[in-house]
Every structure is written in C-alpha cells, then in structure tokens.
Amino acid sequence: MNKRIYLSPPHMGGNEQKYIADAFDQNWIAPLGPNVDNFEKDLCEFTGAKKAAALSSGTAAIHLALILLGIGEGDEVLCPTFTFSATTNPIVYQKATPIFVDSNYRTWNICPDHTRQAIKDRIRLGKKPKALIIVHLYGQSASMLELMDLADEFGIPVIEDAAEALGATYRGRALGTFGKFGILSFNGNKIITTSGGGALLSDEPALVEKARFLATQARDQAPHYQHSQIGYNYRMSNIVAGIGRGQMEVITQRVEARRKVFDFYKEALKDIPAISFSPELESSMGNRWLTCIVIDEELSGGVTREDIRLALEAENIESRPLWKPMHLQPVFEMHPYYGSNHVAADLFNRGLCLPSGSSLTAEDLDRVVAIMRKTFQNPPKKA
Ligand SMILES: *Cc1c(COP(=O)(O)O)cnc(C)c1O
After folding, report:
1. Same-domain status, 303 and 243
2. I want to staple 54 with a disulfide (CB 3.0 to 4.6 A). Which of 89, 235, 236, 355 is the partner?
3. Are residues 24 and 136 in the same domain?
4. Positions marked active-site
5. How deeply is 45 buried, as exposed, middle or buried, from its count of CB atoms within 10 A (0-12, 13-18, 19+)?
6. Which residues carry this modification: N6-(pyridoxal phosphate)lysine (predicted)?
7. Which pLDDT tens digit goes with each residue over 72-129?
C-alpha cells in the first residue's frame, strides 16, 4: 500500500521540544509558566491583538467569549450555518439559541444580507441577538467591511471565530482582531498545532484578564480557595504552550506552503472545467488552510465529489466533504435559519477538501492530481 496522505497533518518546526525541555528543566509542569506567557506574547505580536489568553481549546475560547458577553438562557446568538459544530456548541452550553444564517458564494462565509434580514426579523419578534459570531472558514476572510458595519449599526458585539484562519488577513489586518473577541485553535489538524489548544484575543485587557480568571476556576483573592462565580478549567498547559512557541517560529512559512499547495492544485487542474476553487475576497489574503474544490456535475459527466473522495481513499489518500451546515444537523435543526439560496447546503453537497498539509511533497501532490484526473477521464460506472 502507498504511504497514506493525510488531509492536514501536524508539521513541527524543530524547536518545539526545546521549549518543552525548558518546562521540564524549570519544573513548570502546570497550566501556567513561561511558555504560556511567551506563547501569548508571540500570538499578540503576530496578530497585532493587544492581549491573548492561551486556553485548552478553541471551543473553550468561544465559550468564555459568550460568558464574558453575558449570554445566558433564552438569549439568541447569530451564527453561520456553514461551520464546524465547535462554533455552535458553546451557544447551547449557555442555554442560548443559535440563529443560523446562510453563506454567500463570494466568501463562502456568513452572508451580510441574510444577517441583516435575521437581525431585523429577530428584533421584530421581540429579541435582539446578543452577539454575532463570524467564522473565517478554511482560512478565508468573511465580508468584514459589511459585517462590522452591520454589527455597529445594531450595536451587536462580534466574536470572530478565526480557528481556521491564523495567518490570514483582511486589508492587511489579521483575522481574529476585528471583533470584540477573536478566537484561535491549535488542534491537531489546524495550520499550526499544539496537539490541542486555543486562544482568546481581545484589545480590551480587562476582558482577557477576566477570561484567565474564569479559565482557572474563578478563584477570588484570598489565601484559601474562595469562589463567588462558576469557574472553568480551560487554561493551556505550559508543556503544550512550548509546542506553540516552536510553531509560532514557522507560522509564516506554513502559510506560504499552504498557499503554494492551493496554487499547485489550481494550476494542475485548470483544464478540468467542472472543478472550481474556493474564493478569496478582494483585499484579503487567506491562509488556504485547506484547498477546497466544488464540482459542477453538469460539466463533469456525472462525476461527483463522492466519486473523487472514494477514488482518493482507494489509493490511501484522505480528503473530506466540506462542513455539513449546522441547520441540517439533527442536534441543531430545530433552531431558526435564515437563507434563501441554500448556498451552504450546495457547497456541502458538491464540495471537497483536498490534502493540504504544509509538509506535502511534490510527489504527494502529483499522486493526488493523477487520481483526480483519472476519475474524470474514466467516471465510475453507476447503477
Ligand atoms: C477547530 C475549530 C474550532 C474549535 O477549536 P478546538 O480547538 O478544536 O476546540 C472552532 N471553530 C472552527 C471553525 C474550527 O474549525
């Protein structure tokens, strides 16, 4: 069997183990210490955010952002339907209701027109949404100009889920630094990884201070353990933060490598008109975390994204359908949804993520492209 090609495997820079060794040498084997402090500094320097809190996951960061915005039982939160469930779950942890909004084709992200429609309709029904979560899916910028204007117009705070978008920018500014809060993820398959982890970004130091307080069990100032609020155990370990410091030394190269992978596929498959690629909004630079394609079945002679996925899998190559929209998930389908063209559902039905790791070799990429070309030339027979 050929060596397996993964969708987005970890890619270490080299110094990660040095920072882990420092933690052992200094006996900082805890969810605090110099690696945590320095990783937070690295994140601020790289993104331009004023403050960062390193946490156990991106999901924890979203949860804390919602808590800091005072979101609780019965509140409503606007959320793109086209995302990973981790964006939505923390809304439900807070017993609030997600209000799903469809995407547009220009960005694949939350559609400003439908967002406006949703805000107006929820106000008409007697409840103004308490927050707007914007996701930069696959490292592609959402329509930040329109969305931030809309949020300002209605006075709705923004949480930017940049879990997939570290290293991406809009008008030269890092995604994750536009909202009141930004969140990042360092899970195993993201553009950089700490094995698992996340961060909360904000330009308001008091909010990040409060996030750190809540993330360490909400201990009041006292010699004993004293609590006047419910806390969480959401802080990042000093060992894990050592991996993050090593990874931040190579983040710029990782973004370049992912963008090169995207450009390679685009060039190598340009003569197949049934394949189109994910967009990049004007004035933005995506990190191309995953290279995503969409198949036009009228032009493909009936070849579907599933045909391509299975053909790749038969050759030990991992690919994956685009995210299944939240409003179509059994666990979320009872919540309101705003959209008329069902863009997210269409992208899910026709879209595929190709292997996109920054450590892919030229040989790996040739293998992927050869199998895709073969599938288009000899479409699988169907019953
Ligand atoms: C990965 C991801 C998250 C959650 O991050 P974790 O660190 O895995 O908890 C949130 N939102 C999106 C869009 C993601 O892709």
Report:
1. no
2. 236
3. yes
4. 190
5. exposed
6. 190
7. 999 999 999 999 999 999 999 999 999 999 999 999 999 999 999 999 999 999 999 9
